[in-house]
Amino acid sequence: MFPFEIKCLDHVAIRVRDLKASIAWYEQVLGLKKYQLAKWGDYPIFMLSGETGIALFPAYQDEPIVPNTKNVKIDHFAFQVTRKNFDKAKKRYDYLEMEYTISDHHYFHSIYTKDPDGHTVELTTIVVDPKKFYR
After folding, report:
1. Do residues 43 and 35 lie in contact, with contact meaning Cβ atoms separated by under 8 Å?
2. What is the pLDDT of residue 124?
């Protein structure tokens, strides 16, 4: 049934009220390194330790407020896979007749689907030289 392997947890995407304050906090408290990439514009801003970390996105201020959250929430989480396993995952999703989308993020290709509770689950594979990307 088209098995594939996950390499590691790549990132968790979170929505924050203040990008600058969050960047400072993750740098100071956890020692994460900021990656803001020109091809992606103002966000996401990745805060990484090696090849894993978090992706910061601004909270949606114009959406109805969810009580006690101010729309600050986990946006999605991503597992890193090799290109070969990315292709195997797509075959598996097709076999299981799952709905999904694929996005080209210039540095990565990603496949997105929803879990039974509606959480977005991403599988991502790097398409540039990892040694040049993860400085």
Report:
1. no
2. 93
How many Å apart are CA 57 and CA 38, to the nearest integer?
Answer: 15
pLDDT class for 134, splitting at 50, 70, 90? confident
pLDDT of 98 over the 90 cut: no
Distance CA 84, CA 3 (A): 11
Interior angle at CA 89, CA 85 and CA 91, nearest 5 = 115
Assess whether pLDDT exceeds 80 at residue 72.
no
**The two three-digit tokens of residue 68, written as one number:** 């006690």
